[in-house]
């Protein structure tokens, strides 16, 4: 920029000395337009990069008795615990993002769930994002995962543990065709069905979000396998994306009055008309909010989370 300005100044002096004033005006105008474009472009580039939230600056959990505050898509967590990274049953993906914290209830759930998966010799469970150390809002990506009760589990079950570099930069494996209506038959395996069933067969679970095509396949397979008990299927809810991971959400832990549960799930296994409506955009149900979707407006954060934010911002 300095170079450009000094060059411009030299040009002005040069033109003035030659007395070509009209030419000077035209050229100056051109340069003003050019500078305007440059500044405008810089402003656009700058503002398009979302500013990290306060919650992303927290590097360790907030001291105190563990407690989830607020809702899944607007909350925070006190006394979160990191998931143990030394397990024989699971591996944590992208640890460099520092999103492996959760309520102790979630930590226990993950340990129990992955233990059951291991007992069936299904493979290594890959743990995706949980919450940041204090929970709270992300600047991009997730809208939920804010109160320490959500975890993404990838729909891949490697038979041997991944090496460090692969864990840092894992490749997602979509199980859904580009039409977003059917699963990719060659990639769908009984072990993935079992993985989702084990995850959903736990009373701590509030909901598990999967792509509608995956839910549909689970419904088909449950019938095929002659499942007598389909109650677990009810917990598995169709939602946008989620073609390479399932999103597990736990109920609020007992005795935490500031933790907000979602509305109860409608009755039934969710395999009928409600699921079909997802394949017909005009009818699509939109009442199950609070997932990974970007929300249009940002609500005010719960008072106790705001007090924490102010305390650390002082
Ligand atoms: Zn998620």
UniProtKB/TrEMBL annotation:
GO cellular component, one term: outer membrane-bounded periplasmic space
GO terms classed as biological process: proteolysis
Originating organism: Thorsellia anophelis DSM 18579
Annotated Gene3D superfamilies: 3.30.1380.10
Protein name stated in the entry: Penicillin-insensitive murein endopeptidase
UniProt-recorded Gene Ontology molecular function terms: metal ion binding; metallopeptidase activity; serine-type endopeptidase activity
Cysteines paired by S-S bonds: 76-305, 219-271, 252-259
Basic and acidic residues bias spans: 281-296
Highest taxon in the source lineage: Bacteria
NCBIfam families, sorted: PRK09429.1
Annotated region described as Disordered, given as residue ranges: 275-303
Keyword annotations: Disulfide bond, Hydrolase, Metal-binding, Metalloprotease, Periplasm, Protease, Signal, Zinc
């Amino acid at each position: 920029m300095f170079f450009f300005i000094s060059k411009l100044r030299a040009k002005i002096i040069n033109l003035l000395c030659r007395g070509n004033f009209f030419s000077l005006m035209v050229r100056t105008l051109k340069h003003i337009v050019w500078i305007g474009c440059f500044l405008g472009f810089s402003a656009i580039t700058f503002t398009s990069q979302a500013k990290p939230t306060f919650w992303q600056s927290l590097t360790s959990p907030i001291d105190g008795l563990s407690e989830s505050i607020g809702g899944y898509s607007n909350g925070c967590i006190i006394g979160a615990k990191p998931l143990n990274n030394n397990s024989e049953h699971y591996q944590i993906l992208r640890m460099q993002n520092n999103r492996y914290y959760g309520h102790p209830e979630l930590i226990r759930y993950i340990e129990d769930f992955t233990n059951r998966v291991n007992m069936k010799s299904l493979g290594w469970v890959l743990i995706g994002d949980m919450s940041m150390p204090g929970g709270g809002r992300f600047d991009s990506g997730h809208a939920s995962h804010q109160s320490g009760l959500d975890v993404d589990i990838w729909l891949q079950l490697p038979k041997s543990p991944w090496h460090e570099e692969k864990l840092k930069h894992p490749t997602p494996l979509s199980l859904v065709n580009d039409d977003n209506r059917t699963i990719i038959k060659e990639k769908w395996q009984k072990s993935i069905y079992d993985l989702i069933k084990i995850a959903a067969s736990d009373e701590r679970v509030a909901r598990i979000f999967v792509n509608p095509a995956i839910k549909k396949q689970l419904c088909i397979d449950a019938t095929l396998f002659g499942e007598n008990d389909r109650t677990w299927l009810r917990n598995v809810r169709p939602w946008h994306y989620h073609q390479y991971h399932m999103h597990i959400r736990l109920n609020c832990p007992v005795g935490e009055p500031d933790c907000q549960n979602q509305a109860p799930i409608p009755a039934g296994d969710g395999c009928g008309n409600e699921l079909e409506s997802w394949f017909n955009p005009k009818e699509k149900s939109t009442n199950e909010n609070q997932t990974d979707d970007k929300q249009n407006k940002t609500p005010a954060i719960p008072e106790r989370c705001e007090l924490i934010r102010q305390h650390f911002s002082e």
